[in-house]
Structures are given as structure tokens and as C-alpha cells.
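Figure 2 data, in text form.
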Amino acid sequence: MNESQDPLSESRSTSGLVRDIGPGILMLYGLGTVVGAGIYVVIGEIIGIAGALAPLAFLIAAMAAGFTALSYAELCTRVPESGGSAAYVSAGFGSRLVTGLVGWGVVATGIVSAATIVTGFVGYSNVFVTISKWWAVPLLTVVLTAFAVAGIKQSSWFMAITTIAGVTGLVWVIGHGWADLAAYPQRLGASWGDAGAGFAGAIIPAGFLAFYAYIGFEDVVTLSEEARNQARAMPRAIGFTLVASLVLYLAVSATAVSVLSPDALEQSAAPLVDVVRARGASGYFLASVSLAMIVNGAMAQIVMAPRVIHDLSARRNAAPRWLARINQATGTPVLATVLSGAIVMGLALFFPTGILAGWTSYIILAVFAAANLALVRLKLRGASDRPGFQAPFFVPVAGAIVSLGLIAGEIAL
């Protein structure tokens, strides 16, 4: 079947969403959803646990996240719909109740995450100038919602630009610590030999934390009805996202621990800023990049949530029908987007999002487990000779085990 005959190559999907995202922008969008502002902060805590073994923790975390990422790479070609995880669970289990729970769980995690990120933007901005959340939160939320309403092309370009800024910041860190990397092998050997710094004592706990630095590919699949040549572009974007983020995390963590001690990095509020400052550079550039990545993270959630709501309304009968309306001029679910933005603003202004955000990890891991099990069921039904990307059978099984194991680990801690 050539592209002109492929229904996925039409300018509009069957739901009315516009196919306006090319492969390159899709890859940058995916990388931006994963390499968010978190790495600029959480890396200090990871190194505090693992020391010079931190790159190995990132490697193990990538392997664990990779199982679910590969499952999503197949699921997005089997079920190329904007509902993402909810659509996959619907196809695998056929349960309206389970599908609704998964879908609204994904929406909740996105909205709470966006509210938390918007609140964080105000905190980071106060490094440069004192601002009030009572005007900064509404202004930022309205601007991001306006981009999301304007069209997916505008939103994806916005995220592509901020992603490039974020990656440039990480390269900036690597460049300033490049000369120190020569000493890293010696530091690695010393850490491995230290008492209590073995595999179980350092790498596994740090890898547990590092796993969350790879979450974000599940947002990319909600653009399945807006990506051109989706069957090929989406799996490639997921693969690129995982590999590129792994390479960046390995290089940045090795650089950071080569420049500063693990204790100094763990105690720092802005560890990567301290790394470049230790080598004589100003920290303002990296602080500005952190703000850009915070905006990037909020944008990703405000784009994702309405598309899942749209799918729940248009296909699953799990949301009011008016939320499925697509604006003919912008090709976006305007009402669902405005509603999502309004809730984000309200949460950021009036509610302590910390407690709510703490639950998002449980929800997203439960969603991962459900999506992996849905793929197991789809594979057991046959159609192994179907075209498109296919992951080996053990991949979704391992993905479900890892996700459930992390939930158990969260509860045990």
C-alpha cells in the first residue's frame, strides 16, 4: 500500500484532528517530553545515592523503561488513535470501565503535573526577579493554552525550540566538564570498590529514581492522529527519544560526578548550574534553560490531556460529547484544551499540588502495566504477521512486571 492509499497519510484523521507533524518535529517533541527540567534537579539526588556509578543507574533505568517504550511503539501502530494508553487498554480488554479509569487517570496525571510545573516556574523565576503567582500563573497558563489551541503545528514547534534549548544546556554542561571526564574511569573503579557501594546498595536504588527521568514517551503517542506517516514516524520517534535521552544522561552524569563530589551535587538545589560555575562559567544561561524546560514540560501536558479527553468523548463514551468537538480552523479540540488549561490554572493557584503529584507516579505505573498487559492480550489473539513495528512477546511481559514491581517498591519505601 503506497502512502497515497494509506488512510493514515490523509491530511485529517477520521476524528478530524489534522496530520500536521513531520518526523523531525515529532522526534524533538518526544525528546522534549522526556528530557525535561527534572534532569536538571534530580541528577543530584541520583548521584548522591550512586556516586560515580550514576551512569550505570541511568543505563539500567533505560533498560527497564525500554520494555514499556517498545510496547508503546507497537501499540501506537496497532491502535493509531489520540487516546494513547486508554485506546490500547480498550483494544486489549474491551472494558468501558477499565478504559475510562485508565483514560481519566492519564488526564489527571497530565493536569496535576502541568499545575506542579507551572508552580515551579514561578519559583525558578524568583531567582531573577520577584513575581507574584497571582498574575504569573494565569499569564503562563493562558499563553500555553493559547499555543495548544492555535494548532498542533504551533505547539510542536514551540516544544521543539524549547527542547533544543534544553539539550543545548546539557551539552553546555558536558563541554565545560569535558577535560575532567578523563578522570572518570578512575572514579568509577573507586566507587565500585567502596564498601556498601555495590550493585544492590547503590545502583538499584538510584536506578529506581532514574526510571522517572525516562517517562514521557506515553505523551507522544497521543499525537498518533496528528503525525504524518504515523506507522513509521511514531515508533522511530519513541526509539530516538529513548536512545538520545540515554546518551545525554550518561554523558551529563559522568561529567557532573567528575567535576564535583557526590555530596556537593546531592546538596545542591541546582547541581548542573554548580557544575558549570565550578569551571568558571556563569550559571544564568543554564538557569534560563531550566525555565525553558519547565515551560516545555507544562506545554506537553496541556497538549496531551485534551487529546485523551477527546478520545474518551469521541470513541469511548466516557466523557461528554461536546468535549470531542474539533475546531475546523485550528484542527484542535478547543473546548477540551481550554477546560484542561483552566483546571491547571485553578490547581496551581489554589491547591497544594505536592500531595496530588505524589500520586501521579502510582497512576502512571498502573497505566504502563495495563498497556503492557493489553499488548500481551492482543498478541495472544494472533495477527503476528501484521505489518508495522512488532516487539518480541517477552517485552510487554517484562514491561508489566517492571511497572508492577516499581509500584510495589514505591509502597514499600
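Caption note: Residues 106 and 364 are 7 Å apart (CA to CA).
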